[in-house]
């Protein structure tokens, strides 16, 4: 499972969704889904724009987290 840290990063930088949308041109709906961690897929271009705007790496926005339920299923 991927954990998106966009809301934390934006909070630390005191940015609103509307600020990031205006500066990057990313669709507000897309950014809202990333912010609330409900996005199912993201274009690489979107991630690239976020990294450039926020001055961070992909690994700072996304983190791979092992899911306990999926690990349990594999071990069954």
UniProtKB/TrEMBL annotation:
Signal peptide: none
SUPFAM superfamilies the record matches: lambda repressor-like DNA-binding domains
Pfam short name (any one): HTH_26
Record-linked InterPro entries: Cro/C1-type_HTH, Lambda_DNA-bd_dom_sf
Superkingdom in the source lineage: Bacteria
Every HTH cro/C1-type domain range: 6-61
Transmembrane segments: none
Protein's recorded name: Helix-turn-helix transcriptional regulator
Organism of origin: Acidithiobacillus sulfurivorans
């Amino acid at each position: 499972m991927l954990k998106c840290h966009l809301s934390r990063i934006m909070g630390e930088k005191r940015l609103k969704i509307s600020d990031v949308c205006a500066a990057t041109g990313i669709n507000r709906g897309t950014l809202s889904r990333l912010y609330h961690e409900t996005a199912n897929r993201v274009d690489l271009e979107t991630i690239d724009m976020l990294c450039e705007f926020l001055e961070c790496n992909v690994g700072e926005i996304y983190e791979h987290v092992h899911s306990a339920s999926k690990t349990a299923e594999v071990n069954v």
